[in-house]
From TrEMBL:
It is found in: Cell membrane. One of its GO terms (biological process) is defense response to fungus. This is Leucine-rich repeat-containing N-terminal plant-type domain-containing protein. The lineage of its organism: Eukaryota, Viridiplantae, Streptophyta, Embryophyta, Tracheophyta. PANTHER family: LEUCINE-RICH RECEPTOR-LIKE KINASE FAMILY PROTEIN (PTHR48063:SF103), LRR RECEPTOR-LIKE KINASE (PTHR48063). The chain crosses the membrane at residues 911-932.
Length: 968
C-alpha cells in the first residue's frame, strides 16, 4: 500500500526551503560587500594627489569594488571602509613614496577605525578633518612632513582614539598651548608612540601627563632628553610599557616615583647614560616586582652588584650588558627566578657565579667579558631549556660534567678563560642540539675514545689551544655540516688522514695552523672551491703549492716545507683574495706575473723563499695593497713602479739583489708608508730628497747598499719621528672577510738592526722608530736637522764616509736608545749633550777621528772601551785619563777633606737611625693591630690570598690571550 503524505510536514518543509533561499541570497549579498560610492570617490581623489611612481596603489580603480583595493578593509555588513593602511616599513628617501599634501578627503570615511599613513613623506598641514572620524581608534602619521601646529587640539576631538603614533614628526616644535590642554580629558589615549621627535626637555612632552588615568604604553625612545627623568611618570598608575631608550643625555637614574608603577611590565632605559647603583635602581622598581617582565638597562654606566634579581617574580628578560658593574652576582638560595633571557656581558663582574639552578627557565645566558672566576656551577645542568650559554673572556677554571645534560643547548662559548683539566665524552653526552662550540684559548685537554661518535652535528668548531694531539681527532670524521673548523695550537703531530679530504661542502673557514701536521694538502684543497679562509701555517706540510680556490679571501701557508713553483696561483681568478702569505717555505723559480687579477689584495708576503728573476710588473697594479713583503729571496733587476699602490704602508724588499737608484715615486706616491726597508740590496746613487715627504714613516732602513752622496737635510720632515710623545701604530692589519662579521688579524714581522743585533720583530711599530743608513758610501757631514727627530729610538749611520762633527743638538733626542756612528771620518769633540741621553743603552763611536775628553756622566762612562776605540786623540774614562786633567774642587768653601767626610758620615748616621726607628714603629704598629684585632687579621690575610689568586689568574688569562693574538 502507498504511504500518504502529511500536508503539515509538506508545509514545514516548504517554509524551511524558502527561509534557506532567503538566507542564501542575503549571505551572498553580504559577501559581495559593495563599498560606499562616496567613500570610493574620496579614496580616488586622494590617489590623484599622490606621486605613486612605484605603483603601490595600482589596484585602486581597476574595479568598482574598493574593498578589494590594496590597504583597504571594509565592514562586511555595511560596506563602510574601516581600515586604511598605506604605511611604509621604512621612511621613504626624498620623494620615493607618496609625498603629497594630506587633504581633507578622509573626512568622508566616517566609519574609519584604523588609519595608518606612516613613513610616506606626506605633508601634514591641517588635521581639522579628524573630527569627522568619530570611530577612529588607531592613528599613525609618523614619518611624514608634519607641519600641523594645531595637532593636539584636533586630536582631542576624536573621543574614540586609543592609539596614536606621531614618531619622527618634530613635535618638539609644536608644544600644545594651555588652552588646548584643557580639552585633553575628552579622549582616553592608551598608547603613545613619540619616538624620534627631538624632545630635549620634559616641558616639550609634558602634555602626555594629562592622560594619567588612561595611558598604558609610552615610547619616547631616540629623542634628545636631558637632565633627570620626570618624576611625573610615577603618577601614570596604569602604565605597563615605557621606552626611554637611546636618549644619550639623561642624567641620574630611575627616580623614586617609579615605585608607584605597580603595573609596569616593560621598561627600556638602554643607552641613556644612566649612572646609578644597581641595588638602588632595583629598589626603586620594587613596586613592579610582581608585574615587570622585560627590563632593558644595557649600554649605561650602572655599577655595583647584582643582588637577588629573583625578587622580580615575573621577569622574563633582563639586559645589563655594557655597563660598569663591578660587584658580585648574588642570589638568595631557594628563591627561583622566571628569567628566560639574561645578558651581563661586557662588565667588570667578579667573584664566583651563583647557583644557576635558581634560573631553570633560562634559554639564553650571556656572561662574557667579565672577571668571573671559579668553576662553572654544577647547577648549570638543571637549565633544561638553555639554548645559548656564553661565558667567554672571564677567569673561570672548571667545566662541570653536568654540562652534558643540556639537550637543548645550541651554542656554548667558553673561550678566553683559564679552564683547565680534561674534557671527556661525559661533558658532551646529551648535547644533541649543539651546533656552535667555542673552547678557544684555555688550558683544556680533549680526551675521547678513538671511535667516539658525538651526539651533535656542529656547524662551528672553535678549539684552538685545546690539546687534542698527538693524533688527528678522528671524531671530526663524524661531523658532516661544519662551516668553520679551527683546531690550531692543538698539539697535533700526525699525518693528515686520508678521510680528511672528504670535507663538508659547506666549509668556508679552515684553520689547522701551529701544529706539527705533515703530509700533502693539494688533494683536499683542490676538491673544493668554496673556501674563504685557509690557514695551514706553522706545520710540516710539503709538496707543491695546491690550486688556490677561486673564492679564497685569506690564504696562509707560511712556515711549512712547500717547494717548487707558485705558478699555479694564476690558474684560478682569485679576485676576492685580500691576504696571501707563502713566506718561509722553499718555493723557487720566478714570481708569476698575474697579480692584476687580485685587485682586492691588501697583504702579500713571499719572504724567505728561493724566488729568482725580476719583481713582476703586475704587483704595481694592486691599488688596495697595504703591505708587501718579498725580503730574503734572490730577486734582481730594477724595482718596478708601485706608484698606483697609494695605500701601501709597508714595503719590505730587503735581502735581494735589486739594482738601480731608489725611485722618486716612493716619496711622491706612497704617502701612507710607515715602513720602508730596502736593506741588503745593490741600490746605488744618492738618497732622493723626495723621500722626506713620507711624514708617517717610522722605520727607514737603507743599510747595506751602495748609496752615495750626502744625507738629505730634510729628514726632519718625518713627522712621526719628530714626535717625542707616544708610540707608533701597530703593524697588524685587520683583513676583512665576508662570511662571519669581523676581521682576521694579520700581524707582520720585520727584520731590522736593533742595538747592534739583527733581529726580527712582530708588531714592531708600536715602539720602534728607526733610521738605518749604515754600510753605504755616504759622504759629507751629519745634517744638524737630524737632531730634531726627538722621537727616534735608534740611529745607525755607521760604515760610511761621513765627516765633520757629531751634531751638537744630539742631546735633544731624549728617547734615543741606540746610536752607532762608528767607522766614519768624524772629528772634533763628543758633544756634552750626549751625556743627557738617559735611555741610551748602545753607543758606538769607534774608528773615527774624535778628540778631547769624553763628557763625564754616569751614562757615557758605563759603556765598554770598545765604544770609543779607534779614536787616537780621545781620552777620559772609560779610556785613559787625559794628560794634565785635574778633577773639579768639591762643594762650597770647605777645603778640609776630613771635615767634609765627617759631615757626610754624620748625615748618613742620622739617616740610618731615622730609617730603623721608622721601620720599627711602622712594622710593629701594623703587626700589633693584626695581633690584637682578629677581624683585621682575617681581612688582611684574606686580601693577600685574593691578591695572589688575582695575580695568578690575570697572568694565565693574559698568556692565553697573547697566544691567541700571536697564533698567526
Amino acid at each position: 500500500m502507498g504511504k500518504r503524505t502529511n500536508p503539515r510536514h509538506f508545509l514545514i518543509t516548504w517554509s524551511l526551503l524558502l527561509l534557506e533561499t532567503a538566507f542564501g541570497l542575503t549571505s551572498r549579498e553580504v559577501n559581495k560587500t559593495l563599498c560606499i560610492e562616496k567613500e570610493r570617490d574620496a579614496l580616488l581623489e586622494f590617489k590623484r594627489g599622490l606621486n605613486d611612481d612605484f605603483g603601490r596603489l595600482s589596484t585602486w580603480g581597476d574595479e568598482k569594488e574598493c574593498c578589494n583595493w590594496k590597504g583597504i578593509e571594509c565592514d562586511k555588513r555595511t560596506g563602510h571602509v574601516i581600515v586604511l593602511d598605506l604605511h611604509s616599513e621604512v621612511t621613504c628617501p626624498g620623494h620615493a613614496c607618496f609625498a603629497p599634501i594630506l587633504t581633507a578627503q578622509f573626512q568622508n570615511l566616517t566609519s574609519l577605525r584604523i588609519l595608518d599613513l606612516g613613513n610616506n613623506n606626506l605633508i601634514v598641514k591641517n588635521l581639522v578633518w579628524l573630527s569627522h572620524l568619530s570611530s577612529l581608534e588607531f592613528l599613525r602619521l609618523g614619518g611624514n612632513d608634519f607641519q600641523a601646529s594645531n595637532w593636539f587640539r584636533e586630536i582631542t576631538k576624536v573621543p574614540s582614539l586609543k592609539e596614536l603614533d606621531l614618531s619622527v614628526c618634530g613635535l618638539s616644535k609644536f608644544v600644545p598651548s594651555p588652552a588646548d590642554l584643557a580639552n585633553s580629558s575628552l579622549i582616553s589615549l592608551s598608547v603613545l608612540h613619540l619616538c624620534c621627535n627631538e624632545f630635549s626637555t620634559s616641558y616639550e612632552y609634558s602634555w602626555l601627563f594629562n592622560f594619567s588615568t588612561s595611558l598604558t604604553s609610552i615610547d619616547l625612545s631616540n629623542n634628545q632628553l636631558s637632565r633627570q627623568i620626570d618624576d611625573r611618570f610615577g603618577s601614570l598608575m596604569y602604565l605597563e610599557h615605557l621606552n626611554l631608550a637611546n636618549n644619550f643625555e639623561v642624567e641620574g637614574g630611575v627616580p623614586s616615583s617609579f615605585e608607584n608603577l605597580t603595573r609596569l611590565r616593560y621598561l627600556d632605559m638602554s643607552n641613556t647614560q644612566t649612572y646609578q647603583w644597581l641595588p638602588e635602581l632595583f629598589l626603586r622598581l620594587s613596586g613592579s616586582r610582581e608585574s615587570l617582565e622585560v627590563l632593558g638597562l644595557n649600554d649605561n654606566s650602572l655599577f655595583g652588584s647584582i643582588v637577588n634579581v629573583t625578587r622580580f617574580s615575573s621577569l622574563k628578560k633582563l639586559y645589563l650588558q655594557k655597563n660598569v658593574l663591578n660587584g658580585f652576582f648574588m642570589e638568595r638560595v631557594g628563591q627561583v627566578s622566571s628569567l628566560e633571557y639574561l645578558d651581563l656581558s661586557d662588565n667588570q663582574m667578579r667573584g664566583a657565579l651563583p647557583d644557576l639552578a635558581l634560573f631553570p627557565s633560562l634559554t639564553e645566558l650571556h656572561l662574557g667579558s667579565n672577571q668571573f672566576q671559579g668553576r662553572i656551577p654544577q647547577g648549570i645542568g638543571k637549565l633544561s631549556q638553555l639554548r645559548i650559554f656564553d661565558v667567554s673572556s672571564n677567569r673561570l677554571e672548571g667545566l662541570p660534567e653536568s654540562m652534558g645534560k643540556l639537550s637543548n643547548l645550541e651554542r656554548f662559548d667558553a673561550s678566553y678563560n683559564v679552564l683547565k683539566g680534561t674534557i671527556t665524552e661525559s661533558h658532551f653526552s646529551n648535547l644533541s642540539s649543539l651546533v656552535d662550540l667555542d673552547l678557544s684559548f684555555n688550558l683544556l685537554t680533549l680526551n675521547t675514545r678513538f671511535d667516539w661518535v658525538p651526539p651533535f652535528q656542529l656547524q662551528f668548531i672553535r678549539l684552538p689551544s685545546c690539546n687534542m694531539g698527538p693524533s688527528f681527532p678522528k671524531w671530526l670524521q663524524t661531523q658532516n655540516n661544519y662551516t668553520l673548523l679551527d683546531i690550531s695550537l692543538a698539539n697535533i703531530s700526525d699525518m693528515l688522514p686520508s678521510w680528511f679530504s672528504n670535507l663538508p661542502p659547506e666549509l668556508k673557514i679552515l684553520n689547522l695552523s701551529n701544529n706539527h701536521i705533515s703530509g700533502r694538502v693539494s688533494e683536499f684543497i683542490v676538491s673544493k672551491q668554496d673556501y674563504m679562509i685557509i690557514d695551514l701555517s706553522s706545520n710540516n706540510f710539503s709538496g707543491h703549492l695546491p690550486l688556490v680556490p677561486a673564492n679564497i679571501q685569506i690564504f696562509y701557508l707560511h712556515k711549512n716545507h712547500f717547494s717548487g713553483s707558485i705558478s699555479s696561483i694564476c690558474r684560478n681568478t682569485i679576485g676576492a683574495a685580500t691576504s696571501i702569505d707563502l713566506s718561509r717555505n722553499q718555493f723557487s723559480g720566478e714570481v708569476p706575473d698575474c697579480w692584476m687579477n687580485m685587485s682586492n689584495l691588501a697583504v702579500l708576503n713571499l719572504a724567505y723563499n728561493n724566488f729568482s728573476g725580476k719583481v713582476p710588473l703586475s704587483l704595481g697594479s694592486l691599488t688596495n695593497l697595504e703591505a708587501l713583503y718579498i725580503r730574503q729571496n734572490s730577486l734582481r733587476g730594477m724595482l718596478p713602479s708601485f706608484s698606483q699602490c697609494q695605500l701601501l704602508q709597508i714595503l719590505d724588499i730587503g735581502g735581494n739583489k735589486l739594482t738601480g737608484r731608489i725611485p722618486a715615486w716612493i716619496g711622491t706616491d706612497l704617502l701612507q708608508l710607515r715602513i720602508l726597508s730596502l736593506r741588503s740590496n745593490k741600490f746605488d746613487g744618492s738618497i732622493p730628497s723626495l723621500i722626506c715627504q713620507l711624514q708617517f714613516l717610522q722605520i727607514l732602513d737603507l743599510s747595506e747598499n751602495g748609496l752615495s752622496g750626502k744625507i738629505p737635510q730634510c729628514l726632519n720632515n718625518f713627522t712621526i719621528l719628530r714626535q717625542e710623545n707616544g708610540t707608533g701604530e701597530s703593524m697588524d692589519f685587520k683583513v676583512r672577510y665576508d662570511y662571519i662579521p669581523g676581521s682576521y688579524l694579520y700581524i707582520g714581522d720585520l727584520l731590522i738592526q736593533w742595538k747592534n743585533q739583527e733581529s726580527e720583530y712582530k708588531n714592531a711599530l708600536l715602539y720602534l722608530k728607526i733610521i738605518d743608513l749604515s754600510s753605504n758610501k755616504l759622504v759629507g757631514g751629519i745634517p744638524k736637522e737630524i737632531a730634531e727627530m726627538r722621537g727616534l729610538r735608534s740611529l745607525n749611520l755607521s760604515r760610511n764616509d761621513l765627516n765633520g762633527t757629531v751634531v751638537e743638538g744630539i742631546g735633544q733626542m731624549k728617547l734615543l736608545e741606540s746610536l752607532d756612528l762608528s767607522r766614519n771620518q768624524l772629528s772634533g769633540m763628543i758633544p756634552q749633550g750626549l751625556s743627557n741621553l738617559t735611555f741610551l743603552s748602545v753607543l758606538d763611536l769607534s774608528n773615527n777621528h774624535l778628540s778631547g775628553r769624553i763628557p763625564s756622566s754616569t751614562q757615557l762612562q758605563s759603556f765598554d772601551r770598545s765604544s770609543y776605540s779607534g779614536n787616537a786623540q780621545l781620552c777620559g774614562p772609560p779610556l785613559e785619563e787625559c794628560p794634565g786633567y785635574a778633577p773639579p774642587i768639591g762643594r762650597g768653601s770647605n777645603t778640609n777633606p776630613q771635615e767634609h767626610d765627617d759631615e757626610e758620615e754624620f748625615s748618613s748616621l742620622e739617616f740610618y737611625i731615622s730609617m730603623v726607628l721608622g721601620f720599627f714603629v711602622t712594622f710593629w704598629g701594623i703587626l700589633g693591630c693584626l695581633i690584637v684585632n682578629r677581624s683585621w687579621r682575617t681581612a688582611y690575610f684574606t686580601f693577600l690570598t685574593d691578591m695572589k689568586s688575582w695575580l695568578h689568574m690575570t697572568s694565565r688569562v693574559c698568556f692565553a690571550r697573547l697566544k691567541g693574538k700571536l697564533r698567526n
